[in-house]
Input
Amino acid sequence: MRRYKDEPPAVRVYTVCDESRYLIVRNIPALGCGDELLKLFSSYGDVEECKPMDAEDCEEFTDVYWIKFRLVSNSRFAKRKLDEYVFLGNRLKISYAPNFETLNDTKEKLECRRNEVLARLNPGRSKGSTARNSGAPSSRQPQSINSEQRVSAGLEVPSRVNNTPITRVSSDKEYFPSQSMNQTVRFVREKLDKIQSSGQQLQDGPASKKTRIDNRRRI
Output
């Protein structure tokens, strides 16, 4: 903490019991600036109530306001940012007010703090478990279905191909009304038959010659 007047320097530690969603703001100029103060604190979280404390002792020409946040984290953030903040020429003095808490407020505060500590100690643990539980079953089923569909599709295609009868065209049959066209077809078929027969003769012929070995001396 900062040194005030002639007091010796000191360090103060806040625990979760000292923190509260209730704040007391002192050293506010007595100018009827409650709306401006509410707007300033609302920028750090939801403010449920903001009202002056007329019975509270304060310095001359200053007011004291009582502010109630919805969450403890918001009040903590606002106190850290706005303590010693210059507001209309005066430095604000902010302090926690846990004495205004009810039993439910204290329970909720401790439970929230417990969840925050667990989240910091085990980051991503809950996210990883939920992702595994939700993502594992759905990702396996479509793969098995797709594999079965692929297998069935691959088996059906050859069966269809094998069942289709192969039609052979007779070379003696005339398909065109023009005689010249039919002669051209016969000529082409004769050429194809000769090429096919020559290819078979080459396959049935003697084996290829052995590679010649060069026994000449090298100088």
Notes: Residues 22-101 form a domain with the Alpha-Beta Plaits fold (CATH 3.30.70.330). The radius of gyration is 47 Å. Residues 4 and 217 are 111 Å apart (CA to CA).
